[in-house]
Design a protein that fits this description.
CATH superfamily: NAD(P)-binding Rossmann-like Domain
Radius of gyration: 15 Å
Distance between the termini: 32 Å
Strand content: 15-25%
Number of helices: 3
Structural class: alpha/beta
Helix content: 40-55%
Strand order of the largest sheet: 1-2-5
Order of helices and strands: HEHEEEHE
CATH topology: Rossmann fold
């Protein structure tokens, strides 16, 4: 538990707290986009990141529920799982990608607003 709790507080509670600050104004305006990011372990767990995966899976579930709750409100929420190490120096056997390779996926979600989730794989 001592390895999981900090991840829950940082990754899960942090995202919910941030959304809670901006979501009321977005709902009132009937417009806005919330894109939440986790590692690919939220979708396909990797034992090396077990504590992070658990917190990320909780956030993923929350975002998918938020997406449903906001349907037809004008506010869009989606989850992005990145199944790659960002930049150089990642663990052996983990594929890597640059921010420039990943960014178009966010733009695609922002523009399309047509799905609750996307997974980036290198």
């Amino acid at each position: 538990m001592e390895n999981l709790q900090p991840q829950i507080e940082y990754n899960f509670y942090g995202a919910i707290a941030a959304a809670g600050v901006v979501l009321p104004a977005m709902r009132e305006a009937g417009a806005g986009t919330l894109l939440f990011t986790t590692g690919g372990g939220s979708v396909d767990p990797n034992p090396m990141f077990g504590n992070v995966n658990a917190a990320s899976a909780a956030l993923r579930n929350w975002v998918l529920n938020l997406h449903k709750e906001l349907a037809d409100s004008g506010v869009y929420a989606a989850h992005v799982a990145i199944s790659a190490w960002i930049g150089d120096g990642g663990p052996e056997g983990i594929p890597s990608a640059t921010p420039e390779q990943i960014a178009p996926l966010y733009w695609e979600l922002y523009e399309g607003r047509d799905r609750p989730e996307a997974v980036f794989t290198a």
